[in-house]
Amino acid sequence: MTARFNFSKSRNNSSSSGFTRSELRQLRALKTPAGIQKFLDDLPYNLSYGARSPKEVLHDRIASCLEGGIFAAAALRVLGFRR
């Protein structure tokens, strides 16, 4: 059985997902999935055992793999990509 996902970009982007206007501007500036990946690639790796929220990753500019994945999902949602 193969799972199918539709990651199309939605035109309705009314939800801020709890981000401030400033944070939304920063996330929207990433513009594309490749922009999100570049942002994450440029961050130092978080070696702590805790997990930062996407807001903390954006503010502190540090992320582990898990934090990066969650950040990417949140950023894609802000950019209008829906699942």
Compact overview of the structure:
With 83 residues, the chain is mostly helical. The chain is built from four helices and no strands. Helix 3 crosses helix 4.
Keywords summarizing the entry:
mainly alpha, 4 helices
Largest sheet: none
Report the order of strands and helices: HHHH
**Total DSSP helices:** 4
Radius of gyration: 13 Å
Structural class: mainly alpha
Helical coverage, percent range: 40-55%
Q: What separation lies between the terminal Cα atoms? A: 19 Å
Please provide the count of β strands.
0
- Quote the average pLDDT: 86
Strand content: under 5%
**Overall geometric form:** globular
Return residue spans where pLDDT drops below 50 for at least 5 consecutive residues: 10-14
Can you describe this structure?
The chain has helices at residues 21-28, 33-41, 54-60, 65-78. It is built from four helices and no strands. The radius of gyration is 13 Å and the shape is globular. The relative contact order is 0.26. The protein is mainly alpha-helical and 83 residues long. Helix 2 (33-41) runs antiparallel to helix 4 and helix 3 (54-60) crosses helix 4 (65-78).
How does the SSE layout of this entry go?
Elements: H1 21-28, H2 33-41, H3 54-60, H4 65-78
Helix pairs in contact: 2-4, 3-4
